């Protein structure tokens, strides 16, 4: 009975962590950030998680340092010493650095080919470009949905990009990356939450909805206070413990008033757990 309960608790924990990881990845992918640390992917070496055969465990990209730390911490915290992919719950055999498209196009292509079919889908291409290069995220995202934009790379109209199309010197993906969409790598200055809560809330409320969802709040605190991977996990637990008090309708979001209320708002409550 004890063993069954232990197995059931383990499965429940794995499911909960996987669901949290998926939620984190949605927010992080929009901003081309690591789903583990919320740090910009392109500012550091990028990596993927692989199984014992060297194949990718999921289509996600990570900061190399965050992936290595996750592998070490997850493995040591697991009873059998095995670390599991946060998205697929399959065993991680290792962390593999992704070569640069500019320096090693063939190695980059192989690493980004998540399903091993020797061609890249729109999702694989856009995610990989956003992960490694300082691109205009909104501009590059249009290649997911706009047929005309995608066809500028997909010369044969197959719906996929093959290696020869990457290397096409006249209009290939590699030429496009070299010539287009460079953005500034400088992030805007984040307002100080303790000094100007209104400005801080507006800064992170990127869609001007007047509310912040759970993962948006988690990301905002992590980036504002430069919290490391272990700290992000601890912050998630603290935030989950108090979230229901402020999200009374279970909408998954808190509004400006609930967040900024002096002493009793979510901002002060979370800050108190960080001191």
Describe this structure in words.
By secondary structure, the protein is mostly helical. The chain has helices at 2-30, 64-77, 105-112, 122-132, 137-145, 147-151, 163-166, 173-179, 197-204, 214-224, 229-246, 256-260, 266-274, and strands at residues 46-50, 62-63, 94-97, 211-213, 253-255. It folds into 3 domains: 1-97, no CATH class; 105-187, Recoverin, domain 1 (Orthogonal Bundle); 197-274, Recoverin, domain 1 (Orthogonal Bundle). The longest helix has 29 residues, at 2-30. Residues 1-16 and 181-187 have low confidence and may be disordered. This is EF-hand domain-containing protein. Keywords: Calcium, Metal-binding, Repeat. GO terms for molecular function: calcium ion binding. Residues 100-135, 192-227 form the EF-hand domain.
Q: Brief overview, please?
A:
The chain has 275 residues and is mainly alpha-helical.
List the keywords.
calcium ion binding, mainly alpha, two-stranded antiparallel sheet, Recoverin, domain 1, disordered N terminus, 275 residues, three-stranded antiparallel β-sheet, Ca-bind, 13 helices
Uncertain runs are 1-16, 181-187
* Ends distance: 41 Å
Overall radius of gyration: 21 Å
Instruction: Count up the domains.
Output: 3
Strand order, main sheet: write it out.
Answer: 2-1-3
Please provide the count of β strands.
5
Note the topology.
Layout: H1 2-30, E1 46-50, E2 62-63, H2 64-77, E3 94-97, H3 105-112, H4 122-132, H5 137-145, H6 147-151, H7 163-166, H8 173-179, H9 197-204, E4 211-213, H10 214-224, H11 229-246, E5 253-255, H12 256-260, H13 266-274
Antiparallel strand pairs: 1-2, 1-3, 4-5
GO molecular function, one term: calcium ion binding
InterPro entries: Ca-bind, EF-hand-dom_pair, EF_Hand_1_Ca_BS, EF_hand_dom
Keywords: Calcium, Metal-binding, Repeat
């Amino acid at each position: 009975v004890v063993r069954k309960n232990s197995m059931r608790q383990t499965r429940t924990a794995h499911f909960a962590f996987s669901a949290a990881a998926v939620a984190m990845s949605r927010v992080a992918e929009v901003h081309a950030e690591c789903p583990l640390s919320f740090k910009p992917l392109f500012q550091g070496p990028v990596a993927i998680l692989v199984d014992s055969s060297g194949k990718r465990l999921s289509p996600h990209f990570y900061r190399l340092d965050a992936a290595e730390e996750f592998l070490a911490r997850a493995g040591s915290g697991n009873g059998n010493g095995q670390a599991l992919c946060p998205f697929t719950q399959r065993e991680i055999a290792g962390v593999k650095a992704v070569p640069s498209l500019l320096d090693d196009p063939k190695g980059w292509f192989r690493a980004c080919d998540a399903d091993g079919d020797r061609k890249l889908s729109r999702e694989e291409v856009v995610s990989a470009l956003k992960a490694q290069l300082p691109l205009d995220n909104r501009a590059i995202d249009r290649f997911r949905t706009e047929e005309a934009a995608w066809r500028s790379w997909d010369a044969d109209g197959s719906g996929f990009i093959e290696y020869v199309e990457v290397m096409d010197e006249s209009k290939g993906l590699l030429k496009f990356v070299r010539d287009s969409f460079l953005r500034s790598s400088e992030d805007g200055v984040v307002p100080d939450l303790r000094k100007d809560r209104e400005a801080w809330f507006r800064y992170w409320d990127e869609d001007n909805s007047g509310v912040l969802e759970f993962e948006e709040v988690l990301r905002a605190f992590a980036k504002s206070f430069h919290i490391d991977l272990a700290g992000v996990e601890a912050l998630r637990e603290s935030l989950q413990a108090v979230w229901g008090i402020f999200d009374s309708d279970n909408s998954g979001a808190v509004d400006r008033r609930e967040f900024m209320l002096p002493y009793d708002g979510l901002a002060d409550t979370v800050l108190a757990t960080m001191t």
